[in-house]
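Exercise 4. Each item below gives a protein and its sequence. For each, produce the structure-token representation.

Item: Octanoyltransferase LipM (Psychrobacillus lasiicapitis).
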Amino acid sequence: MEKTKWYFINSGPCSPAYNMALDEALLDWHSEGLIPPVVRFYEWNPATLSIGYFQSVDKEIDMDAIKKLGLGFVRRPTGGRGVLHEHELTYSVIVTESYPDMPATVTEAYRVISEGLLLGFQNLGLDAYFSVPDTEQKRDDLKKPKSAVCFDSPSWYELVVEGRKVAGSAQTRQKGVILQHGAILLDLDEDKLIQTFKFSSDELRERVKASLSKKAVAINKISKNPITIDECKVAFKKGFEDALEIELVEYKLTEEQEMYVQELEAKRYANDEWNFRK
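Answer:
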């Protein structure tokens, strides 16, 4: 039986605003039936702190530190907490809510889409598994995260190796379409990440920093051999194809589509009104 064909876009390093604009544009086009579902891989230039749709810049983010470190900054259209995009492969999946066998609930849809990540990590030789809170306390922790840092704790069905989080994902649903995107860590600069957030005390900052290495880990910290971004792309592309039983077909945007992305970028993600609105 012939597999369903999805588009595959390998964007390479792009600006923070362009990355978020293209993810939203793909959602728009898919909702209008102009393109099939999409798996996209991308990177960030410059390294960037992205924050969740609901986060407060004033309360949680140290913009002086971001400028000093030469980082980009953008607010995502998805929820979740702050992520430092530096040594990583970022993925996005765009698919309709009505896609065959796609669960209606956010949590279960996470599980189905993230099966591609699970197989990707296993393709790299890592013993990855899904995080599922097994006690009332852990479930409460998910509802009330201790800090604004994404990798401070695993959420439902996020990927874990040796008890530590190796990928952080976020999801939104608009116009009948699911957009899930997330960070696959190759390396993690914990000092730099912690510097970008505000804390109520130095003691809390040190506590979160100390706990981060126990809660999050990058691929190259646990892999027997260093893994490159290109090796990641091969492993995770196959992971998504096998998990979702699809064929990924390479796609390049048309000139008209590029113009649409650039307009969306200027209107929203490169706009202070969007990025600093909370």
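Check: Residues 21 and 263 are 9 Å apart (CA to CA).
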